[in-house]
DNA sequence: TCCCGTTTGTTCATGTTGTCAAGTAAATGA
DNA sequence: TCATTTACTTGACAACATGAACAAACGGGA
């Protein structure tokens, strides 16, 4: 983190592991008294006085003076991270567009913007990224930039290994961006970035293991085990799209029968209803509305989608045993229309010695992917610099 | 670890985290020079002189004086753990028998024994356990006892939460044994214990993430992610037995169609072939021999079993992304008869953006389960005491 | 053969980092 | 008012690891 935290411009603070963990604890678990942080991190109270002092002097921690619940003894003096002291830009790349947000330390979105991607030439994409970063730098300097995309990439490595949608392989994107904008830049897989948001600022807070399942144009799965975000071999995340639901169902685009993505992704659901009814103009949300109204074809397709999703979640829970599964993604709202089929399938496919895993549905904002990229940058800066 | 390591009886050595990590590094990664350990653990060379000295003086580490590969510079002086300095007993409980081994620090089996379990009354089982521990204590005192069983139990907790096969729930078995034999005792799930063996002394050495899949009377899955053995919610491990292979195949004992265990466990394979041919006397190994000889029915059943297993492994790999999958269990030798079907299915169900995970087949000795329990005890003693 | 470079391992002074003990501060409750 | 409880601070101290300097043990030239 080097010069990131500095008391004065001439006296940079060196961060120890203990300082880092205190800062992260306060960032993630909100205002806490020194005594409480000491208990959580198994440190002595005196250690906390010393560990927090430089942060307070530099303005990164504030004494929140908000009174806790009235109790005997001296009232505690909660500390809070001043979220405005750092800013991050997160960028999500898709095949035809680029979404970007500027967030503060608490991952609150402060600005957002986007650009079309006319093609996937590196120069063009890089130009658009630089433009967006410059636009979002106007209110003040950035601490880090995060870029997320579907494909294999990790914060540990400045290179995009493969990205089928963008047609890239072995592209040192982080290096190129970092040189162009002079801000530390990290890459990550989009689903893992979204999982990072849940881990620090969402439903995953307080859980040492949970899974995130996304529903949208595809299916995705991110996993946190033992408080650590899992990075699969070569940077892949949970590849659940082609998990087989049965062996004779609809065919996915790669020729498998009964893949989960042939049942539960929004394009598959829309197409299935639209072709059965020969009404090609129907949108995905039209289909959801029809199912909610009890239209038999839409109802059947969404029941199957919910069942497929329930089976996917049960399979993940059986293998990894998370405390919680968070459902998210552009199409999570379909849950409202197929919750019953989902939970029936979840219970049916959960191993009989377990109770079904707790499932939380997280409404999805369109800029959530870009926010994920910002959190990736934030985590990387705070933990690994 | 308190009094475990002692230079003299009156001068017990207090262990720091650094000492622990050095000792474990040497135990798991074999003879290494101080300089090499220093590099691996990111410590200074001088730290290693100090950290190893008490172990050497107490006789837990030996200067192996074996010359490494001839190279420039001063030859290194490899250090090695004296495996004989500690002994462990591991006990595997099944529905009708108890297997036990005595091992040294390197998990080498030095003695083994067993007892029938006439019933599952706690007093009877406890009596047999105590008898076995006393028999295995004859050559010298024990450092710890580990007990493994199918069900939900973890080293962190002295209580068996549930064990369907033994009909137990909420039984404080570790406490009872510990009081009876006066040796620290830990429990664990049997599959996780077996995974621990692979992690420290088997194919998992050198891999920060891998999965163990067992084939036998059931199917099991243990997972190591980020160098940590995963403990699912409530102490369960990978519950892959009822993973659905298709929706119309043979029915498992819980009424599901096409469960993995209806295809790939040894009883299911044997029964399928024996009933089809109306030859109830056939053993599982008879069935394997028939398939190897090309008998059409046996061939088909084993191809289906291999395919099911391949799909299970692919699913695990897709979700958790391990570097390696180790196949083991009482019936792994069936792999020889269905390797082709296995790898075809593995490739078919592996997500198209990945290459199939590397699979290693680990021959299984009948006392391997008990050895796992011993390793659980060893790990717990070395890491958490 | 004799130095030189290289790597290993040790010793000792130094410095960082967190704990302990003691004391101060700020509330509640009798 | 004063004891009790909890929070926080301060300074002495102990633990642990590092860095520098050095000894040891080898191979490889000149």
Structure overview:
Two copies of one chain form a homodimer. Chain A is an alpha/beta fold. Chain A folds into three domains: 6-83, Arc Repressor Mutant, subunit A (Orthogonal Bundle); 86-196 and 368-384, Nucleotidyltransferase, domain 5, CATH 3.30.420.40; 205-361, Nucleotidyltransferase, domain 5 (2-Layer Sandwich), CATH 3.30.420.40. Chain A has helices at residues 17-28, 34-41, 45-58, 122-137, 173-181, 190-201, 260-264, 266-277, 284-292, 296-320, 335-349, 368-384, and strands at 6-8, 11-12, 61-63, 79-81, 87-93, 97-104, 109-116, 144-149, 160-163, 168-171, 185-189, 210-215, 219-225, 228-229, 324-328, 358-361. In chain A, the strands form five sheets. The first copy, chain A, has a five-stranded mixed β-sheet with strand order 7-6-5-8-11, with helices on both faces. The first copy, chain A, has a five-stranded mixed β-sheet with strand order 14-13-12-15-16, sandwiched between helices. In chain A, helix 4 (122-137) crosses helix 5 (173-181) and helix 9 (284-292) crosses helix 10 (296-320). The longest helix of chain A has 25 residues, at 296-320. Chain A is globular. Residues 6-11 of chain A have low confidence and may be disordered. Chain A binds chain B through residues 151-152, 162, 164, 209, 221, 223, 225-226, 228, 230-234, 236-247, 254, 311, 315-316, 318-323, 349, 351-354, 357, and chain B through 151-152, 162, 164, 209, 221, 223, 225-226, 228, 230-234, 236-247, 254, 311, 315-316, 318-323, 349, 351-354, 357. Chain A binds a DNA duplex (30 and 30 nucleotides) through residues 16, 18, 33-35, 43-51, 70-77.
